[in-house]
Design a protein that fits this description.
single chain, 192 residues, mainly alpha, 8 helices
Length: 192
């Protein structure tokens, strides 16, 4: 798409997001009953964060989410620069890496629940992610693109196991009428 127009990939991504929003609006069923939705919520974000940290389990998983999201952000920022500097990757090649990563993450996330409980997926995911970091350190010294590709694939699988597991745990810990709020605040904190 980039060959047609530099902005076209972004336009396609935006269009797909709009399509996803429309499909969600019309196809996704509401899980809260009318009685659950009648309950008034305090919109003070600081009180909501305070409530979030009252539970030890919620506090733990939110801290894990913030730390892991920070790690992912660092990888997303510096991985492309490193590939360009060390292996002369073009923007198109780096984009291809991330595109394939998204597809692999989707496939892994669709299948994680079949093989692991959320707790086991979290543990295995962090182990897999740790192995990928070791591979990347080796790749840095060897300047071997094959090792980089393997490390990136392993990192993608680890990430795909960790994120849904954290979200699942946060969702399970919250009351029925708090689950969306918990996930929203957690994602917001991770975005910081």
């Amino acid at each position: 798409l980039e060959d047609l127009s530099f902005a076209l990939p972004f336009d396609v991504a935006g269009g797909l997001n709009i399509l996803a929003g429309i499909l969600t609006l019309f196809l996704l069923k509401e899980t809260l009953t009318k009685e659950d939705r009648k309950e008034k919520h305090n919109l003070n974000i600081f009180e909501q964060i305070k409530k979030l940290f009252e539970s030890g389990t919620l506090k733990f998983f939110n801290i894990v989410m913030v730390i892991f999201t920070s790690m992912i952000s660092g990888v997303q920022v510096f991985f492309g620069i490193w590939l360009n500097e060390s292996f002369q990757f073009t923007a198109q090649s780096i984009g291809l890496f991330w595109g394939i990563s998204g597809i692999v993450m989707t496939v892994v996330q669709l299948n994680v629940a079949r093989f692991f409980t959320p707790r086991k997926a979290l543990i295995v995911g962090f182990g897999v992610y740790g192995v990928s970091v070791i591979f990347l350190l080796i790749a840095e010294h060897l300047l071997n693109i094959s090792v980089v590709i393997i490390a990136f694939a392993v990192m993608t699988i680890g990430t795909a196991m960790i994120l849904p597991s954290i979200n699942s745990r946060l969702s399970l810990e919250g009351k029925k009428n708090q689950q969306g709020l918990l996930l929203g605040i957690s994602q917001s904190m991770g975005s910081l």
